[in-house]
Amino acid sequence: MVGAVRSLSWRVLLGALTLGVGLPLAGAAPSSSKSKDDLKVVAVVPFGSPSRYSEMGRNAQPTFITELVKSKKVRVVDEKRTKGVVDRFAREMSGMYDPKKIRQIGKFLKADYVVSGQISDTGDAFTMTVHVTNIETLELEMAEDVDFRGAAKMRVAVRTAAKKIAGLISQDEAGSGRHEAFLNIDARHFYDTADACIEALGGLDAWHYEGEIDEELENRRVHVKVSRGKPRPGLPLQVFEEGLGENDKPVGVVYVIEPDQRKGGFVAQWIKEQDKTKKKRGDFGLGARVSNAGYRYRIAIGELVDEAEDNEALVNMFREKLFEKLEESSSFIGKSEDSVTRVVTSLGRGPTRKKNLERLHHLGVDFVVEGKFIGSPGSRRADFKVISAVTGESWGTLRFETRI
Q1: pLDDT per residue over 205-234, tens digit each?
Q2: Residue partners of 316: CB distance under 8 A and separation at least 6
Q3: What's the distance, CA 377 to chain centroid?
Q4: Is 10-182 CATH 2.40.30.170?
Q5: Fold classified for 188-203+297-401
Q6: Does an H or E element contain 323, and which?
Q7: Which one has a higher pLDDT value, 253 or 58?
Q8: How many helices (H) and strands (E) does the chain have?
Q9: What topology does CATH give the domain 209-291?
Q10: Are 230 and 210 in contact (CB under 8 A)?
C-alpha cells in the first residue's frame, strides 16, 4: 500500500522575454522554413535565486540558453555578453526588472525578446517565474505557472518553458511533452500506485475453489459439486481434464451462475469465447475438475476520474502503468484491446450498461475496474469498484492512498 505524502509543487510563470539581433549569438541552425537571419533573437538574463546561498537562479539562465538553442527556432545571445550588459545596467538580484530596464537591456543586445525571472521557495515547493517580454512593444507575451516538486525537476521545468517560448516566438507552437503534465509528480509514484491497485485486486485470488462436474444441463450449463469453498456468481473457473493431476491442462472456462445448496454445489455456464485463451476445447465430461487454481483473471479498466483537477493526462498515465503491472502479475491479465477499450470506457447506465458488460464478457473480460481519484494532488486517494462482467454487480471496493 502506498502511503500518502504531502504534495510539493513548482510553478513556472512565463512572462517577460526580450530578444534582439546582432552581437555574439549562441549557434542556432535555421529551420527548414526560415533562414538563420530570419530567426528572432532572444536574450536570457540571470534569474533570481530563492536565497543568497542557492545556485538555482544562476543555473536557470544557462539551461534556458541551451534549450532555446536546441530548439533551432530562435537565435540566442551569448551568456557572457548578456551578463556584461546586465551588470552595466545594474542587475536586479531578484531577477525581476522594470519594463524600462528590460527595454534598455534588449536594445543594447539587439534582441527581439528578453527572458527574465526568478525562483522562489514557497515552503513546500519552489516557484519559477519566467517573464517573456517583446522589446518593441514591452508586452508580456507569455505567462504560465507549472508546479513541480523539487530541484531535480528544475531542468524539466526549464525545458518545458523553453519549448513553449521557442514555439511562441517562431509562431510554431510545440505540443506538450509527456513530462510536462507531471512536473509535480515523481514518475515512480505511478508505478507505486499501480502496485497498490494490484495488491488490492489480490482479494479476487484470495480463496481457492475446487469441485467437479457431476451433471450436464441444457443451454451450455453444468452442475459442479463443490469440494472446497463457495464461489460467488460471476466467478470464472477453469475446467481441467478428468483427474486431479497438477499438470492437467485446462480445456475451457465456466462461470458460476447460481448456487445450488440442495446438491452442495453450483450451476455454471460456458460461453462461445472470443478470447482464444479461454475457448472450450473438447467436451466437459462428468468428473472433470473445476478450479480457480492458476487462473489469471482478465481485467479491463473502465472510466477513471480525477476529482481534484480533472487531470486526464494523469489518469491515462496511471492506466498505462496499471496495464504494465497487470501483465507482470501471475494472477491477472490486462484486457487493453481496442475492441475492449471502446466498450469499457463508455459503459453507460441501465440497459445500455448491462448490454455493454455482456459484450465485454464475450470479449473475455472477467472484471472491470472503474472509479475515481479523490483528494489533493500528491496525496490522492483511489476509490475504485470491481464490477463482474457476468453479473454486472460490484464485487467490492478498492481503496488505497497514493502519491500522485
Answers
A1: 888 999 999 999 999 999 999 998 889 999
A2: none
A3: 13
A4: no
A5: Rossmann fold (3.40.50)
A6: helix 312-328
A7: 253
A8: 8, 19
A9: Thrombin, subunit H (2.40.10)
A10: no
